[in-house]
Amino acid sequence: MALARLLAAVDRFPQGEAVLARTLQLARAHGAAVTIAHVIDVPGPLPSLDLGETLRAQLERGARDRIEAALGGLDGADIDIDVRIVLGHAVTCLTDLARDVGAGLMVMGAHQGDRLADRILGSTTDRVMASGYVPLLVVRAGIAPPHARVLLAADGGPSDEAALSFAAGLLPQASLHLVQAVRIVQQLEEAILRIGTGPEEMEAHRRAIADAAARNLRELAATLDRPVTLRVMQGDPADAIVRAARRRGSDLIVLGRGRAGLFRRAFVGSVARRVVRDAPCDVLVCRPPEGGQSD
């Protein structure tokens, strides 16, 4: 795959070291350049022009020094690295910067946020994920070897094939395990039973849903020229995906983006957001295909 530039978004250190390490690892594998971004979110206007410029310079210098210190302990000597320190709203700055530099992948930590706004609307990571401008790799593990055991969670939607293709190109040496979780939500099951559907018909409906998921996984696997393993799971999708990753010792979960809107994501939580929150490993959330339905 052609991956010319990665964007690494770093905030706190030493947590940001794992983000930098994973970004440099992927950049080296693909011969890509790296832009490292740190957004300084300054609440309110700076006190005065002179003091404001001085304060801004101090903030930028401190952020750049921390990034350069972290890079000093990592192997990035042969990689084209550009460091950007910007002031503004984190989500807007990061998505704009990804567009400006032509990033093919953004890498961030799994920030959860402590402010009330973060708890209501989601952390910076949540909101960047919701924007869907560029594939997003959320680093949950510390500094680790290259991803080798990838679990790709399909949902039968239009983003499945694009997510699989991106993951396979990003990690050509990794093993791939495709899963899809199926269930009849409780409200629908109760409604079906109320209209007189018997247990046998309900079980037949469950089997039909599972068979459709199995066909979807086989069709996805057929798009690749490498071996993959497949499994259809029962139950809540987010819970089933996290359990499967733990059971298999996966070091990366790959998701397409579902169909929930922004306010549902904010107050209820999409499958992707819940997986990022609970996953035992890194999570890659891929953008939908052009013209497709976004999450």
Can you tell me about this structure?
There is one protein chain. With 295 residues, the chain is of the alpha/beta class. It has 2 domains: 1-141, Rossmann fold (3-Layer(aba) Sandwich), CATH 3.40.50.620; 145-295, HUPs (Rossmann fold), CATH 3.40.50.620. Helices cover 46% and strands 20% of the residues. It has 11 helices and 10 strands. Strand 2 (33-40), helix 2 and strand 3 (81-87) form a beta-alpha-beta unit. The protein is elongated and about 75 Å long. Mean pLDDT is 83; it is low at 112-121, 260-269 and 291-295. Belongs to the universal stress protein A family.
Distinctive features:
46% helix, single chain, 295 residues, Rossmann fold, 11 helices, 10 strands, alpha/beta, 20% strand, disordered C terminus
